[in-house]
Amino acid sequence: MVLVTQLCAEKDDNLNTNVFPARLSALEKKVQGPYFGGDSVSFADIFWLDLYENTLYGFPGEIQVSMCEYPKLEAIITSLCSSENLKAYYAAKN
Fold first, then answer.
1. What is the average per-residue pLDDT within 63-88?
2. Which CATH class is domain 2-93?
3. What is the per-residue pLDDT for 71?
4. CA atoms of 40 and 66, how far apart (whole Å)
5. How do the domains of the chain map onto residue ranges?
6. Of all helices (H) and strands (E), which one includes residue 92?
7. Where is the GST C-terminal domain positioned along the sequence (predicted)?
8. 31 in the Ramachandran plot: left (φ > 0), alpha (ψ -120 to 50) or beta?
9. pLDDT digits (tens, 9 = 90+) for 9-60
10. What does pTM read for this prediction?
11. Residues forming a β-bridge with 35
12. Closest CA to 35 of 4, 68, 80
């Protein structure tokens, strides 16, 4: 059991120090305006919100990424989370 715990910790450390920073930096460079495609919300923005909520934000004890290092990506999350249209969509699904 100790070996499994150690392997999981090593995997999480690799994700937090190598994988996520590299991928998020690359994504940050792709943002072309307030959103990935410019001035309008696209599927890429919605996909990013889903990835953020279910992967980065969904495992707070394991995934430890500071979104302050990725201001464009953080701005997309903030914008989408405050969208009345998106709130209405989620409310209708529940």
1. 93
2. mainly alpha
3. 98
4. 25
5. 2-93
6. helix 84-93
7. 1-94
8. beta
9. 788 788 889 999 999 999 999 999 999 999 999 999 999 999 999 988 888 8
10. 0.83
11. 38
12. 80
